[in-house]
Amino acid sequence: MLLTLAIFLPFLGMILILRAKGDDEKARNLGLVFSIVTFVLCSIVAYKTYGLESGKYAAEIDVSWIELGDSFHVRYHIGVDGLSGMLIFLTGLLAICAALASWGIKKNVRGYWAMFLLLHTGVIGTFASLDTFLFYMFWELMLLPMYFLIGIWGGPRRIYAAIKFFLYTLWGSVFLLAGILVVYFALSADKLPDEITAKNPQALTFSAWRAANPDSLNGADANVFSIPQVTAYAKYMVGKGGILAAFGDLSLFGHHIAWWIFWGMFIAFAVKVPVFPFHTWLPDAHVEAPTPISVILAGILLKLGGYGMLRLNFPFFPQVFAEAAFCLGVLGVVSIVYGALVAMAQTDFKKMVAYSSVSHMGFCILGFASLTTEGINGAVVQLFNHGTISGLLFLVVGVLYDRAHHRDLNRFGGVMWKMPVYSTMATIAIFASIGLPGLSGFWGEFLAFVGSFSGHYHHAKIITVIATSGLVFTAAYYLRAIQRVYLGKVNPACEDFPEITKREKWSMLPLLVPTILFGVYPKPLFDMISTSLNTLVETVKQTGLAG
Amino acid sequence: MLAETWIPDLSALFSHFMAESILVIAIPVIVVADLLGKPEGRDRRAHSVALVALVTAFLVALFQPTGAHLTALLRADGLAKIFRLLALGTGIVAAISALRSRDLPRAHTEFFVLLLGAVLGACLTAAANDLAMLYLSIETLSICGYLLAGFKKDEKGAEAAMKYVLFGAISSGLMLYGMSLLYGFAGTAVLTSATGPSIADAAMRAGGDPLFVVAVILVFAGLAYKVAAAPFQFWCPDVYEGSPTSVAAFLAVASKGAGFAATLRVIAAISGGGAASSETIQAFLLIAAVVTMTVGNVAALRQTNAKRLLAYSAIAHAGTLLLGVAVTSEAGVTAVIFYMVIYLFMTLGAFYIVSLVENETGRADIDSFEGLGFRAPMLALCMGVCLISLTGLPPTAGFLGKFFLFKEVFAYAGREGSSLFFWGGIIGLLNSVVALAYYTKFLRAMYLCDEDRKQGTFKFAGVDRSVVLALTIPILVLGILFQSLGLIASNLARGLF
Predict the structure, then answer these.
(1) In which residue ranges of chain A is pLDDT below 50?
(2) Total domain count for chain B?
(3) How far apart are CA B105 and CA B365, in angstroms?
């Protein structure tokens, strides 16, 4: 019930705001109140995931939604484990910060807050879904509010950026839908082809497997849309033909259909992450989006990509995942190095931060590719920490932009002397993003490297070494930014910058606290996620490709 | 079940075709009322009679029994029922829209007579089980359609009607030729029959005979013209642009629906028993479907006129529906029916709002939608819902329509190990990305415009508001609660194969 409330409370808020005719102040207050209540609910839900056993979910609800025929049973099945709980907590946290940062929005205020809250319904719903159909519905529900938020309240090239974001993401989602449909068909097959059963006598169809293991998974009926069930079945079918065994040896252009579906789903999530070469929408969207929307975009929407991989892509196709480790590693390292190099060439502060996101999300992919416990845990911690740090950095840029009305790194200087509190916060955020030990950005990168170095694919060590060069580039562009903006002689244009307001400070503090706290003491994060990632790690081990 | 005869039990026949009978009676009533009454109120009188007839027929058709095989000529099964309801529903909306729209300076008596005639043709097309009957009903629909298309009586209207006639004549000719070949194979024009000889039997006997395949494809050529599938889609944009918006909406939904009903009936007859030719025909249909939707979507990208854009979108949707037809299974027909019902709401909703904007601004360009989101928030919101549904995004019903269709396409690909269907499905899904690119032109105009376009009000009557809401609310409701529609669709599709 709590989780359902967390999902649909923002939606209720949207309706209330739309009804508050002509009263902008009321809309703002309502928006903030609903963000805070949502954050409280999200925190409670996230807290409940502590100490959960592997494969169990907190706040789980599983009720019938639509039943058509024998196999089409869509259920309203939601629940959180450590992984989704952590990201839902992050969503709530960023919702408050973004809400506080939205006070400057003066244009069509009611519409803005309505879309803002609808976006959160989509995001929290996606994280909470344990049914592929429901997942897809929430996944797509996010697109429309984001389109409007960028398109109406964005910068000069907002229309281009909005449509580019929309088209890019939908293009990826199409493959996700195809994947869901193919999995649905394969699992509802009543018989496996002879070539599969001859090779693997233990291979079972999905319904036969459910019948043979009636007590697992809380004894729920066989349901081809259920994410926990398909995950468990995929684990069982490792080495026995995989979940698409019903397709037999069906190959297209020399690759088995499971290969196609894995990479198709990967594209869907890679666009969101974004992984090179699917990242080109990101700088445009970030630069044009208003500050709070950039915060949400970088802090939450990018995490959905990584989350989708961990929830659907990798557990459904562990074999292909393990075989693809090398390609993933290469994609990760290219994202890291390329993102960092491009960020170095930027003079626009916001664009630089945007490209640094590409670079930092590359660490997640590198961690996944390692197939090791350390690597995957590091990647997931990186998801959370990048969420807080990049959110913070976009707020930092936003504060500066509100005063200077430009973001050109070369036209600042000496801000530190004019705005000491703000500059201290900004510097902490930047050092966290560089990955300084003691701040939260360090742990994800460090573990991703540790895991990646012991990865079992070809040239894992060389790839890791190349990836570490990304750290040097990151330090280079960030330190240069600090030097140009905050240090040095006071630029005459910055002479009359007022110190940050209370509201601005409060929008940054909720993100600054975890940045420092989890930098010194990251244990709560690891405790939260490690059990829910165990299943994936074990499954991958079974393939025999992860050592 | 009654024995199938040429001269059936008339009272039973009447009870199964009461809706059509009401239309048949209403047509002379309009004409007589026109002659007898005072000249001032002619239009309104004709309009009232037509609307009453359509609504009565719709309600009657809702409760009309199904399942009986009354005559070899006509079927009163689920397929006939649902497509009859679609035609009548479209007729109602078109009739309401026609009287209120400015592009028909005077909604003439003739207009409503022709509209009723076209609806009657569409109803009978959906029920026809005999090639001759099929041809006659399609021509009834088409000839009324030609006249309706040219009703604006300006240059564009004349061009529209002329194009529609010429293309119609060519494809009718091809279809008739195909029908004559089929008759040659079967010795009868009856599609399926429980007792006597039928084309379904002939399909079994013919095996993979190429001539038989050619005959079937020729018949499909005629039907492809009705549903606006490639390569018979060329008339579509010009006709939609030149004809009154209410007529364009009718052509986009009722006429297309009738075409699909006939296509389904023909394909069910020739592949029902697993005839050898059916695989070739399926492959042909699949390729036609993929080409149609790609052509429609890509061409729509460059349109600036709302009606032309919707015409290309209608072509694209014909392609999507053809995918479901190509699967040729009961589940496939279920998906097509499901999609068609949703398509009715979203397309009629979009056309209705276009006609309102056209009434207000006098133009049907996408530019004329600028700022609508601020001048008429409710209307723009409804338009947005229709467009999102047409694109096929959740949480609207359009997504479910696509979901069920593509589910069947991939299921077929898996079952038969057909990579053709697999790639067909992928290309079909990718098409929705292209579709998004042009549907968002409306969203962009309505919401993402310059400040100065957001001023002013936009007037429309309470009736319009009700019609628009009645068309868009189901899109949202069916997007979440689609179980009953799914069950109804699968009941209606039962027994076709």
Answers:
(1) none
(2) 1
(3) 20
